[in-house]
Backbone:
């Protein structure tokens, strides 16, 4: 336990900046996940770096194949997740309690499906609610601050389908809620075990300034990985080519050439808040019908227009989480083994900073 606490405090010191006067700003609560796949128990740990107190919240029945980084969303109000078994949308608090989410969904009596996303800074949320009217899906989109004091219903979204097996899936929300990105035709069913990332081919963008939707500018017609910076002004797609994955964006001077190895899948795209760098993971199945793969992690310099392999290929799957140390290092999660790591971009040194998976932070 002491080792875990030390790792948590070390991680906080890496993450949290100083104020303009040189004084340390109030430290946020750090949120970690520990998944015991043998018992189906996932423990959320809320670590207070000032008091040293760690408050747990246990989620029972969490499937062994589920990934915490995909199922839990940290916001300033708490951690959003779907309760195993019932599917109810829940909000876990740093005090060690959980409750039905207080304002998602907005149509609780009729809603059939809910999907959500948080802004990169955790201060805002966007979500899609699907109801069925005479067998036809109808979708409503909303954005709000994390506490629900300002909820905005958006106009009816473009690109939606009458196909009952397709869903609208939010992809990214800018910190100021000026831009909301979504996939208008995502499969309703879960990914099969041999697909490691979500891919999107009907990406739309809502602009709060114009109150209009449009297809993502310059988006390739492919099932692609997607990510956006905190401001929402640099949406990025990953397009598969014969040599690897091409990085494209409407604000880039040109697509960034693919890099080898030529893996078949890519995703978990993280774009730096200032849109200077991006990172993504790739996967290649060893056999078509078995969930075994080789993985690699890529670093993209969006300003220079180059990309390179950071880690791999190998059997360890990395998920890029966040830039730290003024952009000089990257936090990574070991997807299957658990734990959080720091990768120094200059020295190329990888070091573990926590035995649990860091999910995010909650401002006090």
Residues:
């Amino acid at each position: 336990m002491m080792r875990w606490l030390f790792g948590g405090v070390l991680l906080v010191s890496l993450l949290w900046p100083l104020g303009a006067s040189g004084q340390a700003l109030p430290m946020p609560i750090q949120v970690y996940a520990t998944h015991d796949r043998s018992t189906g128990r996932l423990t959320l740990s809320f670590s207070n770096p000032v008091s040293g107190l760690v408050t747990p919240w246990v989620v029972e029945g969490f499937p062994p194949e589920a990934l915490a980084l995909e199922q839990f969303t940290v916001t300033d109000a708490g951690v959003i997740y779907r309760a195993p078994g019932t599917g109810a949308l829940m909000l876990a608090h740093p005090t060690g309690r959980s409750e039905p989410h207080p304002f998602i969904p907005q149509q609780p009596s009729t809603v059939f499906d809910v999907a959500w996303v948080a802004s990169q800074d955790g201060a805002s949320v966007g979500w899609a609610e699907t109801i069925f009217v005479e067998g036809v899906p109808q979708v409503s989109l909303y954005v709000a601050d994390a506490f629900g004091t300002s909820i905005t219903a958006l106009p009816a979204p473009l690109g939606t389908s009458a196909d009952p097996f397709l869903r609208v899936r939010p992809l990214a929300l800018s910190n100021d809620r000026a831009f909301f990105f979504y996939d208008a035709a995502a499969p309703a069913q879960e990914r099969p075990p041999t697909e490691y990332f979500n891919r999107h081919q009907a990406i739309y963008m809502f602009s709060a300034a114009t109150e209009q939707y449009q297809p993502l500018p310059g988006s390739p017609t492919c099932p692609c990985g997607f990510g956006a910076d905190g401001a929402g002004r640099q949406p990025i797609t990953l397009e598969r080519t014969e040599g690897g994955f091409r990085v494209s964006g409407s604000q880039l001077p040109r697509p960034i050439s693919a890099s080898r190895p030529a893996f078949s899948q890519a995703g978990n795209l993280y774009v730096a808040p200032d849109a200077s760098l991006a990172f993504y993971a790739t996967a290649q199945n060893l056999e078509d019908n078995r969930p075994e793969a080789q993985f690699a992690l890529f670093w993209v310099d969006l300003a220079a227009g180059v990309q390179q392999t950071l880690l791999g290929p190998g059997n360890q799957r990395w998920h890029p989480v966040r830039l730290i140390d003024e952009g000089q290092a990257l936090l990574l999660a070991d997807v299957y083994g658990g734990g959080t790591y720091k990768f120094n971009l200059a020295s190329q040194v990888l070091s573990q900073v926590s035995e649990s998976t860091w999910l995010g932070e909650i401002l006090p």
